[in-house]
């Protein structure tokens, strides 16, 4: 008779992110690092090598622990499908979000589903806010109010005098930028027009 194994799964969306926080939480929960599978890939991708490898290894009675359910997929539908497939296979899934917990029974599954939907709603709302902020910034740039990206400080005659006076006193460009809040490029431009 084989004994049930505890596996862990951690995922971050981009290669520039690190999954150290998730790995630390999983090992602190008692998961052997050799039994933790990882991906650095968007949850929107259908094929995730680490998760695919893990799913091919789990057997009835095994368990998978994740930092939070949204690590299993990008959309609530995908997470639900993955969980349903695992439950059908006899594999228990735990979430460390908050405290280590298993959602079983009708009430537990309902609570789990609500948490997954809330996480997806939060992600969608954040994406909408970011998109709206970008659109507003682009609209201001189009109207000539501001260039999209880093804000610029107007180089008024007063600012040009300040920059030149500080330079005459022996201040470096870096110091002038720090003291005035004027961009480095604008400081150089003010000094080159002298």
TrEMBL record:
PROSITE patterns: RECOMBINASES_1, RECOMBINASES_3
Protein name: Recombinase family protein
SUPFAM superfamilies named among the record's database cross-references: Homeodomain-like, Resolvase-like
GO terms classed as biological process: DNA integration
Keywords tagged on the record: DNA integration, DNA recombination, DNA-binding
Keyword Translocase: no
Catalytic residues (positions): 13
Species: Microbacterium caowuchunii
Residue ranges annotated for the Resolvase/invertase-type recombinase catalytic domain, each copy included: 5-141
Protein's UniProt keywords contain Transferase: no
GO function term, MF aspect, one: DNA binding
């Amino acid at each position: 008779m084989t004994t049930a194994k505890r596996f862990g799964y951690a995922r971050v969306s981009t290669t520039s992110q690190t999954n150290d926080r998730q790995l630390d939480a999983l090992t602190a929960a008692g998961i052997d690092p050799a039994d933790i599978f990882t991906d650095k890939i968007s949850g929107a991708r259908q094929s995730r090598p680490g998760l695919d490898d893990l799913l091919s290894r789990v057997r009835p009675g095994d368990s998978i622990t994740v930092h939070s359910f949204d690590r299993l997929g990008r959309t609530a539908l995908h997470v639900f499908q993955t969980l349903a497939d695992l439950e059908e296979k006899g594999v228990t899934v735990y979430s460390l979000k908050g405290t280590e917990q298993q959602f079983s029974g009708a009430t537990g599954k309902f609570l789990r589903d609500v948490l997954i939907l809330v996480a997806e709603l939060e992600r969608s709302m954040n994406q909408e806010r970011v998109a709206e902020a970008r659109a507003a910034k682009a609209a201001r740039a189009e109207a000539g109010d501001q260039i999209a990206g880093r804000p610029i400080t107007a180089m008024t005659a007063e600012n040009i005098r300040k920059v030149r006076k500080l330079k005459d006193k022996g201040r470096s460009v870096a110091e002038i930028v720090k003291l005035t809040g004027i961009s480095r490029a604008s400081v150089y431009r003010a000094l080159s027009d002298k």
